[in-house]
Batch of 2 targets.
Target 1
Amino acid sequence: MSPLLASVTTAVVEWRTRDGAEETTRTDFVEALRDHGQAALERSGPPTHVTASAFVFDEDAAHVLLCFHGKGRFWVQPGGHLEAGDTSVEGAALRELREETGVSPAQLGGVAVADLDHHALGGGFGRCASHLDIGVVGRVSDLNAPLVVSDESDAVAWWPVAALPPDSAPGLADRLARVLAAR
């Protein structure tokens, strides 16, 4: 078993669900890993595969860092596909965070798995039908640090958790509430 598959498996197995919907989501992960193994981690694997994302908040969790996704045309947390060089799901999420926003892992005050989410994708995502996303959470103290916009996004910005942009990804507000409740 690769270190990345071991990390993903551990995150899924150790995740403590709080309700039936979260248990259904965890079951989706378990089935994908059972049925596809390492391939479930690869973009070229099955149309439903594992991704990693990072929910980054300020110290009092009043603001969240979001990217305006170029393909999806919505505001969402930084994240994306796992890559061959990734050795942990946390590392993959932090790599995506750095690539998409310029925020480095050194700026975060600790990182932990905070959410499992299974979401469908629109036609603009090619062969990807849905993502089994493992979200990690971290905090930064300096909201004025420079941000970088990657070629996958049109913008990167801090948004008040209580006033998300109207063109946010479907389910983002609910997912943020779950992440904040889990921390």
Target 2
Amino acid sequence: MKYRKKPVMIEAIQFNGANYEEIREFIGQDTLCSTLSIVIPTLEGNVVAQKGDYIIKGVRGECYPCKPDIFTETYERVD
């Protein structure tokens, strides 16, 4: 069987090494951060996102990191 991913609107923010406050507000809690990485609490536990990664908020409010190349292949910007 083959399946197609349902079109779903998500919210996302890209970690640039200097936008900790914006990401903290986005995920709704404090977390560990440096200029190169940030810890993202996920449903499976803490995951480290690297500078350049996107932080995605899923349909149920869960957050998780995504590498930039996968993000651009999977999502397109909606204005």
